[in-house]
Amino acid sequence: MLKIGELASLAGVSRDTLRFYEKHGLIIPNQRTESGYRLYSNIDVERISFIVSAKEVGFTLNEIHQLLELEVTKDKKSCQDVKEFVDNKITIVNQRLLEIEKIKHSLQTLSDACCGGDEPATQCTILGALNEQAR
Amino acid sequence: MLKIGELASLAGVSRDTLRFYEKHGLIIPNQRTESGYRLYSNIDVERISFIVSAKEVGFTLNEIHQLLELEVTKDKKSCQDVKEFVDNKITIVNQRLLEIEKIKHSLQTLSDACCGGDEPATQCTILGALNEQAR
DNA sequence: ATAAACCTTGGAGTATAGTCTAGAGTCAAG
DNA sequence: CTTGACTCTAGACTATACTCCAAGGTTTAT
Ligand SMILES: [Zn+2]
Ligand SMILES: [Zn+2]
Ligand SMILES: [Zn+2]
Ligand SMILES: [Zn+2]
């Protein structure tokens, strides 16, 4: 049984983060001491590894919540369910990627058109384009 | 002279958005009526076009604030200053792009390893990987 | 016995970009 | 002269993922 600080340092997150995750239903300590201290088990260390690596892979806490539910009920879920979940996320990430690429190209076009010289920016094509564009 | 609702519909933003922009120093009406109504000029329509298109190109309101300052003082600023600003933004966007690509590849690897079959997910490589990975 | 270290709760603050609401005042038309 | 459309302010609320703080209770070490 681990107290919150022990779990925190084992898992490499802050005590506040653990309480935050608890408030959002991601890890709930299975016991409390008489005085109200949270008590965690070793399984919770793994649970946090799971959260941390899922975060690194780009899942939001909300999605991780759903993933954890898949984890817990994995005998009732199929590989198909899990893969579908990940593939949906890939679709979302792809959309975000396209958006950002579009932004990058717009900025690049803007930059390329500007001479970048020393003269006053009164005729700067960048400022000009931002003024016109929205027509 | 335009009242807030008129400017809003001309510019295609909400009245609330205009007041929000004002609070953040992006557009400040040059006059008020006796009764306190904001009065905008036609120049403000262009100013909002500027904001809207800068937003579309991926600038944050904060950055647009700085861009507007470049705009206003453009006789004191050079093309170089403006281009530098845009190029810095391109660098940031590029970093974000790389991050998201990394996430995409991680997810793809995860997905590819899973059979996606009908059997219970007890042995699912995705769930497995998320449990291990963080070591 | 007492101080340090740790724990508890609730709530506020951070950044982003607004939206929505309430309660009140203003303006034009019928 | 009243109704409806419009405006004002201040403040709350949205989502995301925490972090920090205050004020108090508990444990551990010396
Ligand atoms: Zn130039
Ligand atoms: Zn230029
Ligand atoms: Zn499988
Ligand atoms: Zn699988």
Automatic annotation (TrEMBL), chains A, B:
One of its GO terms (molecular function) is DNA binding. It comes from the Bacteria. SUPFAM superfamilies: Putative DNA-binding domain (SSF46955). InterPro entries: DNA-bd_dom_put_sf (IPR009061), MerR-type_HTH_dom (IPR000551), MerR_fam (IPR047057), ZntR (IPR011788). GO terms for biological process: DNA-templated transcription. It holds the Pfam family MerR_1. Keywords: DNA-binding. The keyword Membrane does not apply. Residues 1-70 form the HTH merR-type domain. This is Zn(2+)-responsive transcriptional regulator. It comes from SAR92 clade bacterium.
